[in-house]
Design brief:
The complex is a heterodimer of chains A (310) and B (254).
Chain A (H helix, E strand, L loop, with lengths): L2 H22 L2 H24 L10 H17 L4 H25 L2 H21 L1 H4 L5 E2 L8 H23 L2 H18 L4 H27 L1 E2 L6 H14 L5 H17 L6 H15 L3 H10 L8
Antiparallel strand pairs in A: 1-2
Chain B lengths: L3 E12 L2 E12 L3 E5 L6 H8 L7 E6 L2 E2 L5 H6 L2 E3 L12 H12 L14 H13 L15 H14 L4 E5 L10 H13 L4 E5 L3 H7 L2 E6 L2 E6 L1 H6 L1 H8 L7
Parallel strand pairs in B: 3-8, 3-9, 6-7, 7-8
Antiparallel strand pairs in B: 1-2, 1-4, 4-5, 9-10
Helix pairs in contact in B: 3-4, 3-5, 4-5
Chain lengths: 310, 254
C-alpha cells in the first residue's frame, strides 16, 4: 500500500472507531473498547522494551499497578485533586524506572528477567500486606472517574491511544530509536561504537514506564478500584502474550493482540470458565506457525512481493 | 618523532592463575603503522580488549593522547577517537549493511539523543555511510541484511563500521581472519588506502608475515604474553630472539 492510501485508511478507521460506538451509546461496548485501548497502551509500552530494545522485563506491570494504586490512594484517602495524583504517578514511575535501569547495569537477558520478576512480586506482596495503605486483598475502591460519562471516556481513550502510538512510532524511528535497535542486535558492539548503552536503555525504560503508568491511570478511572491482581506477574505475562500474539516489534501488533485477547476472553468465557485453556492452545499455534504474530500475517498479505528491508 | 597517541605501560593481565600478559610496554605514534604478531594465544587480542575497555588489566596503565584511560568503559574510550574491529565478526546481523555503517557514523555526531525527529532527516550520516561503503567495496549491497553477506563481505563491513566511527586511532584485529588466499589482497588494499591518507595511527594484529613486512612501519612481536621485540621490519627480521621464537629460523619468511 502507498503511504497516502495508508493514511487515508488509518484516518477512516479512526473516524469509524470514534463515531460509530459513540452513536450506539452502549456503556458495555464502550467499556470493552476502553479496556482494549488501555491494554493497547500498556502493550505498546512493553513492545518498546521487548521489540525495539531487546529488554525482557517480567516486572513491567509494576508501573501499571503502582500508578493505579497511587491514584486510588491519593484521591480517595488523601483527597488530592486528580492532576496532583497524576504528578505523583509521574514521580513514582520515574523512580521505579530508575531502579529497573540500574538492574540492566548488572544483569542481562534471563537474569534481568528474573530480577525484574522478583521486584514485581515484591510490589505485589506489598500490595497484599500493607493493609493501611493498599487495603490488602480488598484493594482500594471508590475512585471516581474524571470523565463525566463513558462516551467521553471512550473518545478520550481512543485519542490517547492514537497519541501514544504516534509518539512511539516516532521514537523508534528517531536517531535514538535506531541506537536502541542496535542495542537489541548487539549490545556490546553498540557500546564499542561510543554509545553509552546505559543512558539509552534508561531513556527507553523511563518512557516505557511512564506509558505503562498512563495505562494504569486510565485503568483505575475505568474500574474505580486498584487490586493486587494488577500487580501480579501474571499481568505482565498477559501483556507479553498480547505483544507476541499481535507481533513483536511492530507497535500496531500489540494493539491487535490486546483487542484479540480482550474479545477472546469475553467470547470464550461465555462457553467455559477454563477459557484460558483454549486461548493457550491458540497461542501455541500462533507461536509455531506465525512467529511474527497476527501483524506479521497481515504484512505478508499486504506486501507479498516486497523484500523485507529493515 | 611525532607524538605518542597510545601508550601501553607495564601491562599485566592474569586470568586466575594463568598469566596472559607480562609487563607489555609499547607505544603508537601519530601516523605510525604498527603490526603486532605472535602465535595464537600470545595475548594479542587481550591487549586490544584492555586498550578498548572490554577488560580491566591486572596492573599497568593505558594512555590515549596523554590521558589515562585505564579501566574506562568502552564507549568513553571510543569517543576519544580509538576505534577497534573484531577478529570474530561482530556486526548487527538483522540490520542492513547501510544501517550497520550509518549507526556507527551517528555515534560520532551529536544527534543520537533526539527522540522526536526521524532518523532519515539526518542525511549527513547516510552520506558518510555511503562514502565508506564505497571505500570498503560494498557498493550495491546496502540493502542486504548483514547476516546475509558472505564471510569476506562481513569482514569488509566490519572494517566499514570501524572507519565510520571516525576515530584517528584504528585497531584492526586480524581483518583477514578466515579469508581465502584470493580474498586477502583486497582487504589489504583497503588498509593500504587508509594508511596512505596519513590521517590515522594504526595498530594491526595479523599473521600474514609477507604482507605486513611491506606495509608496517614497526612490528611488535608477542610470545607467551611477553613482548620480545618492537622495531622496524628490517631489524625485527634480524632479531635473534624473534627468529628463534616466531620465524622458526626464517623458514616462513618467503
Amino acid at each position: 500500500m502507498k503511504t497516502k492510501n495508508k493514511l487515508v485508511l488509518a484516518l477512516a478507521l479512526l473516524a469509524a472507531v470514534l463515531v460509530v460506538p459513540a452513536l450506539i451509546g452502549s456503556s458495555y461496548i464502550h467499556s470493552i473498547i476502553i479496556t482494549i485501548c488501555i491494554y493497547s497502551i500498556f502493550a505498546i509500552s512493553y513492545d518498546l522494551l521487548l521489540g525495539y530494545t531487546g529488554i525482557v522485563s517480567f516486572g513491567h506491570t509494576v508501573y501499571f499497578g503502582v500508578a493505579a494504586y497511587v491514584v486510588a490512594f491519593t484521591t480517595v484517602k488523601l483527597h488530592w485533586p486528580f492532576l496532583a495524583a497524576v504528578g505523583m504517578v509521574i514521580v513514582v514511575c520515574v523512580a521505579i524506572s530508575f531502579i529497573f535501569s540500574l538492574v540492566t547495569l548488572r544483569t542481562k537477558n534471563v537474569y534481568f528477567s528474573m530480577v525484574t520478576m522478583a521486584i514485581g512480586q515484591l510490589f505485589y506482596v506489598m500490595s497484599t500486606k500493607l493493609y493501611a495503605i493498599t487495603g490488602g486483598d480488598d484493594g482500594l475502591p471508590g475512585v471516581k472517574s474524571i470523565f463525566p460519562n463513558k462516551t467521553v471516556f471512550y473518545i478520550a481513550a481512543v485519542l490517547i491511544l492514537v497519541c501514544v502510538y504516534l509518539f512511539s512510532k516516532r521514537l523508534v524511528n528517531s536517531p535514538a530509536g535506531r541506537v536502541l535497535q542496535g542495542v537489541k542486535e548487539n549490545d556490546a558492539r553498540i557500546g564499542m561504537l561510543g554509545y553509552n548503552t546505559f543512558k539509552f536503555k534508561s531513556i527507553v525504560i523511563q518512557i516505557s514506564g511512564l506509558l505503562a503508568g498512563l495505562a494504569g491511570i486510565l485503568y483505575v478511572n475505568l474500574n474505580g478500584i486498584a487490586t493486587p491482581s494488577i500487580l501480579n506477574s501474571s499481568m505482565t505475562l498477559q501483556i507479553l502474550f498480547m505483544v507476541i500474539l499481535g507481533g513483536v516489534g511492530t507497535l500496531h501488533g500489540p494493539v491487535i493482540g490486546a483487542a484479540i485477547m480482550q474479545i477472546a476472553s469475553i467470547v470464550l468465557s461465555g462457553f467455559t470458565t477454563r477459557w484460558m485453556l483454549i486461548f493457550g492452545i491458540g497461542f501455541v499455534v500462533v507461536m509455531l506457525f506465525f512467529p511474527k504474530g497476527v501483524a506479521g500475517v497481515f504484512d505478508r498479505f499486504s506486501q507479498p512481493n516486497q523484500l523485507r528491508k529493515e | 618523532m611525532s607524538e605518542e597517541v597510545l601508550r601501553v605501560q607495564n601491562l599485566k593481565k592474569s586470568f586466575g592463575g594463568i598469566r596472559v600478559l607480562e609487563d607489555v610496554d609499547f607505544s603508537l605514534r601519530k601516523g605510525e603503522f604498527k603490526t603486532i604478531i605472535g602465535p595464537n594465544g600470545a595475548g594479542k587480542t587481550t591487549i586490544y580488549n584492555i586498550v578498548s575497555g572490554v577488560m580491566k588489566p591486572t596492573s599497568g596503565k593505558i594512555f590515549c593522547k596523554g590521558q589515562d584511560i585505564t579501566g574506562l568503559p568502552p564507549y568513553k574510550i571510543a569517543n576519544l577517537g580509538l576505534s577497534r574491529s573484531f577478529q570474530i565478526t561482530n556486526l548487527f546481523p538483522d540490520l542492513t549493511v547501510l544501517e550497520n555503517v550509518r549507526i556507527a557514523a551517528q555515534a560520532k555526531g551529536k544527534d543520537s539523543l533526539k527522540i522526536l525527529l526521524d532518523y532519515k532527516h539526518f542525511k549527513n550520516y547516510f552520506e558518510t555511510a555511503n562514502k565508506i561503503l564505497t571505500m570498503v567495496h560494498l557498493t550495491g549491497k546496502e540493502d542486504l541484511l548483514a547476516k546475509d553477506l558472505s564471510h569476506a563481505e562481513k569482514r569488509k563491513l566490519e572494517m566499514g563500521i570501524l572507519l565510520a566511527m571516525g576515530g584517528d586511532i584504528l585497531l584492526f584485529d586480524e581483518p583477514t581472519a578466515g579469508l581465502s588466499a584470493e580474498e586477502v589482497p583486497e582487504l589489504f588494499k583497503i588498509i593500504e588506502e587508509i594508511k596512505d591518507t596519513k590521517e590515522k595511527s594504526i595498530l594491526l594484529i595479523e599473521h600474514k608475515i609477507n604482507i605486513i613486512l611491506g606495509i608496517s612501519d614497526t612490528i611488535a612481536v608477542l610470545q607467551n604474553g611477553v613482548l620480545i621485540g618492537d622495531d622496524t621490519p628490517e631489524k625485527i627480521q634480524q632479531n635473534q630472539a624473534v627468529q628463534d621464537a616466531y620465524f622458526g629460523g626464517g623458514a616462513v619468511l618467503g
